[in-house]
Structure formats: C-alpha cells, structure tokens
C-alpha cells in the first residue's frame, strides 16, 4: 500500500506540474475543525454505541482552472480521524461495559473537481489517506473491576498495536462560499471506503472512517 500511495503522489505532482504551464494556479492554506464517527460493524450480536469525536486538521491547497467555471483543487493535509464507542458486555455471566476512544492521524490528499457558482462552489472527488500515528484507549469494567489498555493503532499486533491498515481511500464532497475576496468557508463530508481493520486479527470486523469537516481557507493570489 505504501508503494501505491507514493506512486499516486508522484503521478499527481507530475500532472499538476504539467498543467501549471498552461494554467494560472492559485495557492492557499487551510485549517479544519472535524467531527469524526466511524462505521463499525462486527459479526457478533453486540453492537456498540458510537459517539462523535472532535479532531482538527491543517494543510495547503492549489486551485487549477480547467474550463469555464470548473477547476481542480488538490490539497495536502494533516488530519485527525477516529471515534468513540461504548459496548455492554456479558462475560461468563458477569455484566459490564467497555469504552473505546480511538484517535487516528493521517496525511490526507483530496483531489476535488470543483464547479464555481459565483460566490458559492460545490465539488467532489477521491481522497487518499496514509496513517502516520494514533492512539487507542480501551477501558473495560466488569463488576466494579476496571482495566484500561493503550494501543498504537497502526503498529503490528505482535508489537503491541492493533494492526490497522495505514492506507485509507475515501470519497469527498464539499460545498463552500468565497468570503472577503481571498477567503473561503467550506463544509465537507469524507466517506471512507477502506476497511482499516481488514486484518487476520479483526477479520470479522469492519471499521470505516466518516468525517464532517468545516474548513477555513485563504488564497494568496
């Protein structure tokens, strides 16, 4: 997967460099407030209650005119994903609860095709993510006895991690408004397609990232 991501980034860079010869490219910076809630399913009967988890992001973007009111907007961001989950347990007749809080940190590269509607704009496209770090906190309480364990999600299970896949492919949709000449405010939805726990240790589980993203950006030119 690392090789696929590297090749994609290199190819995208080559394409953008070629297009810059004929197009007036604009560059900018952006910051993001993020609400995350995963799609999590198991093969068992127990289904966890999921909560929104706050995150943030920061990055850079480019705007490349294509034709008429269309343009291409690639960006490169540091971005947090993850979730919170609560689950009722029953182990050998003893009842209890399990709580999990998972924070995942990614380098995220959306490539959006955008249509400009005067002050407003809409867009959609794929997004490639690569997990670089994270933390999972799992607490289990059984009849008054509580145990809390900490894991690195992207480390191998044999090294004390959870064995999550680092590569994450998503679909991204946005609607935004141009403000103050060079500024923008944008609402987006990131819909993960990859099962990040598709490993032997979690072969019966499905964990896909979901994010609602509020972005503030500024274009330099």
Can you walk me through this structure?
This protein has 221 residues and is mostly beta strands. The protein has a single domain, classed as Porin, CATH 2.40.160.20. It is 8% helix and 65% strand. It is built from one helix and twelve strands. It has one helix spanning 2-19; strands spanning 26-36, 39-41, 49-51, 53-67, 70-91, 94-117, 120-142, 145-151, 167-179, 183-192, 206-208, 210-219. The chain has an eight-stranded antiparallel β-barrel. It has a two-stranded antiparallel sheet with strand order 2-11. The longest helix has 18 residues, at 2-19. It is elongated, with a radius of gyration of 20 Å. The two termini are 36 Å apart. Keywords: Signal. It comes from Mariniflexile gromovii.
Q: How many DSSP helices?
A: 1
What is the CA-based Rg, rounded?
20 Å
- Fraction of residues in helices? under 10%
Percentage beta strand: over 45%
Q: How would a textbook summarize the main sheet? A: 8 strands, antiparallel, barrel
Signal peptide: 1-23
Protein name: PorT family protein
Pfam families: OMP_b-brl_2
Keywords: Signal
